[in-house]
Amino acid sequence: MSPRIHLPSGWVTFVFTDIEGSTRMARMLGPVYRPVLREHRRLLRDTLAGTDGAELLTEGDSFFLAFPDAAAAVHACMTAQRALVGHNWPNPDATPRVRMGLHTGYAEPRDGEYASPEVHRAARVAAAAHGGQVLCSAATARLADPLPDGASLLDLGLHRLRGFDDRERLFQLVAPGLERRFPRPRTADAAAHNLPTPATSFVGRHFERAELGRLVEAYRLVTVLGAGGAGKTRLAVELASGIVEDYPDGVWFVDIAAVTDPGLVAFEIAAVLGLRPEPGRPMVDTLVEYAAPRRMLVVLDTCDAQPGASAEVISRLLAGGRGVRVLATSRESFGVPGEVVWRIPPLSVDEEPGGGASDAVALLLDRTAAARGGRAPDPAEQADLRRVVRRLDGLPLAIELAAARLRVLSAGQLAERLDDMLGTLDAGREAAEPPPVEAGWSGNQQDTVDLVAAATGAAPPSPASRAVQRSASERHLTIQATVTWSYRTLGARSARLLRWLAVFAGPVDLPTVQWLLDEDPLDPLSVLVDKSMVLAEPHASGSTYRMLDPIRAYAARRLIETGEEQSARDRHVAWSRHALDRAHLGPDGRPVTLSLYALDPLAGELRAALRWCATGGSARSGLHLAGGLDQWWRERGLAREGRLWLFRLYGRIAETGEAIPEAELAAAYHMHSLHAGADGEFAEELRYSQRAEAAARQAGDRGLLARVLAGRAAPLVDMGQFAEAERVCREVIDWAYAQDVVGDALLAVYNLAELLWRRGALDEAAELLGAARPVEAARPVERGRRSVDMLLGMVALSRGDLVAAHEHLLVALRSRMSHGYLGRACDTINAIAVRCALAGDAVSAARLFGAAQATRANLRATPGIHGPYWLGRQAELRRALGDEAFDAAYAAGAGLRLDEAAALALHVEHPDLAADSPRFGTPTAGPRPAAEPRSTTG
Hints:
With 938 residues, the chain is of the alpha/beta class. It is built from 41 helices and 15 strands. The strands form three sheets. A seven-stranded mixed sheet has the order 2-3-1-4-5-7-6. Helix 10 (307-320) links the parallel strand 10 and strand 11. Helix 8 (265-273) packs across helix 9 (283-291). The longest helix is centred in the middle third of the chain and has 18 residues, at 565-582. It is globular, with a radius of gyration of 32 Å. The model is unreliable at 419-479 and 919-938 (pLDDT under 50).
């Protein structure tokens, strides 16, 4: 650095930058890397060093600069990131991903450099960032005023920087043109584990836990083998939770059952570790490089879902570094070098030496008490309980099934009926319905008769009956064998019902079962419940029926073997469409205000139906189902899942060539655009908005076209093109009025009102919303959101009219909470926080801000057009309360559930009831504009 460069003093903002993965990029690009590095330096000098910042050091791919002004430093970083993103690099793999960190502190230069801990803090802030991300400390965030147009700072919470004892609040720069979604910051206080918290107590297994713990300590790969339902996952999690402190880099649980493609196993593990794909590099290489220097335990669950891919990733992880250990659960071993296979035994059925209950009996006692509403079994039942667990060979899933039956039976009754359900006498229960004879199926009715005779001593067993006895003894080796033995005792109608029930993802009621079969299912259903193949769960409104997952998987395979899958799953899709349509209707069959709570119980079934539509059914039906969940996806923070289902359905259309009407395609593309915007994928949002418009014009449906066009402003707003967005909104609204379809253009009205509010045109916004109120009230799909009241509340806040703001916002919040619009409820809680702040209740305001932000983070919601407004009000609150008081109140709010936060907001005192209200003195405020009604009935 030249000694003539003037170094700022006093409050200095330090900026550090470097290229994420520069070493790997250099190896990958070879000779191409040098010009890429030169171009990277030029762009940064043009945007960073080209301002009033002083360049102190440039080394390799790193920059170190000092700015006299925090706002200028933030603006320079934003400009630099945009320049890097917009530059035409040689190829996508040659695009450098630069991370930037800013911190402001008091510093004085000496001899052309800074010797200050503030410099090191800035370097640690930069080290916490990811490529493409700009992080700044709380000091920089406080002094960076004003922010660039369209930019905001996203509060990422408190983090402990490496080498520092205190916690630093980190903020991410959010602005049009910058990437928004990143893994958690790379700080020293990352969670030590992500192990699931079981809902029920862990019973017994003391010896097994100790033995498995010794193996994990001695060997780097331990595979727990056992049948489905043997308790592999539960034991692995219990063991891992007790040794978290032994692994400084964490204990990480990864469920391979959720992986649908072998190539995604490494991605699933990387996602848990907070890693992202790197251009031009296999994900497994990134994973191995990350794990190599670390000491951590990876718990891979249900590896039999992807055995080959799991084995490959495990081998690479173990070869990459000596500090990594793997504890896997599977139904089959991997066969890789160094693997120690430990087979989980059944629960002990023998009494403890001191006379205590065995593990199997203890589990049955615990689960029976839960099944009976907390009432423990009678001591007189102990002997029968021991009989039960012995007959079940201590298999945990079988014990769970038995405990469920003890809801309605005594232990003695169950012990007797176990012979009927799982043993030799079971087959005789359906004498009127002979067991089915299927292709490839061993055994027949005569075998069953011989077995019954032998069990009763009527005659010596025949060779056929002895074969069945051998099968009976083997049924306890695995849960599959147990289910098979029960299944072969079913009559034709009961077996068919079991197979067809496999299409349901969760519990069903009796009318649903009848709808599925199109006949009275009571008789075969009673048989399945008696045999514990289906669990009956009584409720005040009627019983529901469900299968445990291993039984469902078994029944689903049988469904395929009998050639019934197409018919059964198409019937399930038809039921799902019917249930979805009914959620939009009242008891009289007329449309009612849409409540998203009505869709929550259907989510599992609709996902199962969508899966079939995307793989073996009708994509057109799938689009119908996805459309019924349109708002639900976004309000539950599942916009990304909604997009993935749509992509799968598009693929199904391409595969089958199924004809889809243009109107239905337009609706799907429009929905896709909204999902993409909610997920922060703005280019995709615009692309599908354009496709929706083209399809809607082809369809010739004016209402549909109005709905599609009304969404065209959203991508423009997301990209910061506010003037163009306002122009589009006005054009759409004028066209909709001319075509008499203004109700279908409500989204454009809401967007225009937000844009008017943003630039301070409050009177026009209020007038526009006043005219929209009756239109909204007439539309069941929109009126539950009460967007008019929400936006009128925002207008009132900007006018300082707390009475109107209070009334409008509480109406909006009540409606949104009562109809399940959780994401939108967060916006309303934020607005009520502003209303509290304006009334002088700063602590309540900070608590509500914390509660809203915590829920929005869980829902992965983007800040939206109101984001900078909330952040500005929070900054004012922080200045008013001070950091300590604000953080305490904010953290208290973040610990609230959404319903608790809503209750707190709804109990905020009405301004007219406050001691300084104009009602109790001389009014000082002028009359309210007529366009902003106080009525809360809307």
